[in-house]
Amino acid sequence: MRRGKLLKMVSMGVIFAIVTSCGQRNIATSGNRGKQQTITLLHTNDIHGNYMPFLTTTGSATSQTGDAGRDTLITFKQQAEIGGFAVLATAVKEIRKSKGDENVLLLDSGDAFGDDLLGNLTRGEAVIRMMKKLGYNYLSLGNHDFDYGRERTEELMKIAGFPFGAANIRDKRTGKSIFGNPYLIKEIGGTKIAILSLGYHNTDLTGNSENMKDLEFLRGNEVLKEVLLEVKEQADIIILLSHQGTAVDRLTAEEFSEIDLILGGHSHDLISKPEKINNTYMVQALSDAAALGEIDLEITDGKLTGIKANHQLLWLSDFEKDGEMENLIKELRAPHLVHLEEVIATATEVIDRQYKTESSFDKFVGNLLRKEYEAEIAFLPGVGYGISLQGDITREDLYRLIPHPPKIVTLSLTGKQVKATLEQTATNQKPGDKYEVVGGLLQSSGVSYTLDYSKSVGNRITAVQVNGKDLDLEKEYKIVTHSGMLKGLHRYNEIGKGKNIDRKDIQLNEFVTEKFRELKDISNPENMKEIKFIK
Fold first, then answer.
1. pLDDT digit string (tens) for 257-316?
2. Other beta carbons within 10 Å of 534
3. Residue 337, burial from CB neighbour count under 10 angstroms (0-12, 13-18, 19+)
4. CA-wise closest residue to 157 among 117, 197, 187
5. What are the strands, taking DSSP E only, across 326-376?
């Protein structure tokens, strides 16, 4: 890596220094009075199993960067390869060499090890072994960190050799935070740093409920007061690893001024210039191992007096691949190369995954489903992980977009239920309570409508048409979706109330794989812009 120069960034302000004036705790730790020191925090979030580089698209906003429907819009400024653990390892090692291993902590804010094909084949172990190799110190549990079940998450923690935690995820059997203490105290040069963790409060609405048996997911503000009372007696500086998303992190900062810094996750934001709310600073490092956050804590007399932030995008043109990590990746991939590298189709143009607006990839899949099962409407959940497809599409590429195993389902809904489902997606995106935000925009095919966010909750959907005809509230419509939606994923409860439910014996990702093989050439669907947005 060529350190000493500013790397290409997607937003202004690569390095940001702050002189803090907030009141700090004065813990009597030995040997730190009158002493100045720098402690460096390296942080990632929302890796989603993406240990390999991916190709960006010029000016395109995808699930990695947000899209036009998000509160924050970031676009890549060049078409080039970015990310992956081999270049992440290079960046981390260079910083450790520069700052001293003993002065550096490496942290992750959740959604780390699933959501790709190798993750499925190894049940999360592949990325965990990479994280162990790189020497992570702590993982705050994200909603997708339970995709292989609670027991498997605990097994992966043992493999990792570093703690996983979340103060607001409780084991119902014990009434205590999952996996024990939800924080870690690290003493560096006489200064005690508390690493406190919060998971996603709506985790049970984003995955298979069977994977989360005996777990309770609480809002962070319901548990923080008690935990902070315990932590602040032990630490000079409190760092929160949060998988709540930026909007809720802001609420947390407003309510809990004891927290010095929030390292965020879940919302895939790049906050390279730290936000300050009251006494608390906030940052976030994009997603998909495409960026590395670097925070220097300037400490005098055991108090935080300044912050320097240097968030780097991990362009392959700016970093060499680390040989040790590259060898580990090859070792982990070797038994599965036939599955991973099979080319199943070719994208003749760039096909994107969007999150808060219509997604061309999901529209394409919805069209395939409607045609195959002679349905009038296809509904799929809005999800925030994935890549843009371009050129050869491998099986691994497709599983980055559809990693989970739900099976295809057809059913019938009345027009009234269809409209209620559309109203639910509007509510999910912009509810009155920011803690209630869950999932992305419901992805659909065959239904057009206007969504007006300026109207009151429950009255935002108008001009609904199904295949060009006005929605009939009494009529029954044939719907195609998947089994996760049938179980109330993202609060789409009307789908589970449908009639004539027919569970197909094929997983959605297997179906799409076969259809891509048949089609060979894939392009953007012609029925985009079925939704009109009014903000």
1. 999 999 999 999 888 899 999 999 999 999 999 999 999 999 999 899 999 999 999 999
2. 11
3. exposed
4. 197
5. 343-351
E-assigned strand segments in 467-527: 469-470, 476-482, 499-507, 521-522
Residue pair 183/165 in contact (Cβ under 8 Å)? The answer is: yes
Distance CA 474, CA 485 (A): 22
Separation of alpha carbons 239 and 77, rounded Å: 32
pTM above 0.85, yes or no: yes
Q: Name every residue whose Cβ is closer than 8 Å to that of residue 289 and which is 6 or more positions away in sequence.
A: 44, 47, 50, 51, 83, 84, 85, 88, 314
Instruction: Read off the tokens for 276.
Output: 């300050």
Q: Give the whole-angstrom CA distance, residue 433 versus residue 121.
A: 38
3-state percent breakdown (helix, strand, coil) of the chain, nearest 5: 30, 30, 40
In 10 A of CB 93, how many CB atoms? 17
Q: Which of 425, 398, 341, 388 is nearest to 519 (CA)?
A: 398
Could you tell me the sign of the dihedral formed by the alpha carbons of 455, 457, 462, 465, in that order?
positive
Q: Are 138 and 165 in contact (CB under 8 A)?
A: yes
Residues 353, 33: Cα–Cα separation, whole Å:
52
Domains of the chain: 15-332 (3.60.21.10), 341-534 (3.90.780.10)
In this predicted model, what pLDDT tens digit does every residue of 176-232 receive, in sequence order?
999 988 999 999 999 999 999 999 999 999 999 889 989 999 999 999 999 999 999
Q: Which of 193, 248, 190, 207 is nearest to 224 (CA)?
A: 248
Cα–Cα distance between 38 and 298 in angstroms, integer? 5
- Using a 10 angstrom Cβ sphere, with 0-12 exposed, 13-18 middle and 19 or more buried, the burial of residue 252 is buried
SS3 per residue for 402-441: CCCCCEEEEEEEEHHHHHHHHHHHHHHHCCCCHHHCCCEE
Write down the residue that tokens 């991939």 correspond to. 333
CB 289 within 8 A of CB 88: yes
SS3 221: helix
